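## tool: complex_structure
## caller: assistant
## args:
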Amino acid sequence: MVKVKDLPENTLNRLVIYLKVLDNLEKKRIDSISSDELARRCGVNSAQLRKDLSFVGNLGTKGVGYSVKTLKYHLKKFLGRDHEWNLVLGGLSPLGEYLLSNKNLQRDGFYFMAAFDIREENIGKIINGVSVYNLEQLSYVTKAINVDMAVITCEETPEIYYEAFAKHNIKAILNLSPLPFFPESKEIQVENFSFIFALTKLSYFLKNLKQS
Amino acid sequence: MVKVKDLPENTLNRLVIYLKVLDNLEKKRIDSISSDELARRCGVNSAQLRKDLSFVGNLGTKGVGYSVKTLKYHLKKFLGRDHEWNLVLGGLSPLGEYLLSNKNLQRDGFYFMAAFDIREENIGKIINGVSVYNLEQLSYVTKAINVDMAVITCEETPEIYYEAFAKHNIKAILNLSPLPFFPESKEIQVENFSFIFALTKLSYFLKNLKQS
DNA sequence: AAGTGTGAACTTTTTCACAGCT
DNA sequence: AGCTGTGAAAAAGTTCACACTT
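## result:
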């Protein structure tokens, strides 16, 4: 078996951006675009964009450029966005409630099937059609439906949810709690994000701007 | 003037993680830690951690390790988190309302001073003590108070807010709208994030997991 | 003529491995 | 003896520049 060189993390980040920007171009009824122009709109240079796209396939036409529709189609497929995914939520914070109520996620193929919490007063609530169960009932839910991903939105102790989800064979986790964590196993993928992270990067930038 | 080698983006990302993990260690009353152990908790290897910290200073003690408290102190200072920042919000979506109501941001030194929208029905609302103004009134606010950062949480057309903020000399922007954008000028720093981005990275991971 | 796809050159980042301090 | 800080080596990622296709 030939070992295919795997996708660099930053290339993945950029491909996700290209997809979103293409989606927007399609809405604006733009049919065709060059790597130069698309790169400009994505904040990268065109050689980078072409190299990134070469991981996906030969999608352009020499001398012409890219078809917005075709490129979007192949990117979606490459990124696993050509079909729907089932999600569960762990930790019913205000952020969790926001996500359960957010219709945009469904429009992009991400469906919350159930939510879990450990606080008795939350169990049994129904938010935008999604029921909140006790975390101990996770086995029943994973037996009944196929769960692809979990989103953790608790405000503390994300480990409790992480361990339960990992034990039930959920391999992809978006951790939006304030505390990042990192799986031992490479079988499980965790994306950590918090608003404080993003704001801290900006505070670093501003501090250095003022000094120079 | 000697050009100091500037901080790689990924190093910055990791420093932000180290800070948060140290914060948690301090809460757990752990006084001292080795690079090996801290690296493990941050999902990196210890050489990487030590190299990253060398951008901040000589903060450890050979043969001993790092003082949690001291390291946290220096990291906070290095990242510009040793004082408070004034924020404004653009686009009063449910996500925007969530952020305005979120007390954790204040605890970490990020204060929303005002919010802006372009829809008449939202103007004049007060959310968690923060008033919503018409975007056209931005000049009055920026004259009255020093605005450091802006957070865009509209559900479409982020450019409208971006242009207004840039024109009023706001240099750091967190864009949480679905559409990423990239400033022409390097004087302005934009962080783009959306939940769909993060979930798409997970969908790519799952797609490839299943194939192998 | 225009613009992609890609080896090769270059640059940056990561990891290694050990001198040096406690 | 133990663990940091850091040059040097290795690996990875980016940019260049041009052959090639439409």
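## assistant note: Chain B touches chain A through 60 residues (CB under 8 Å). Residues 9-27 of chain B form the longest helix (19 residues). Handing back to user.
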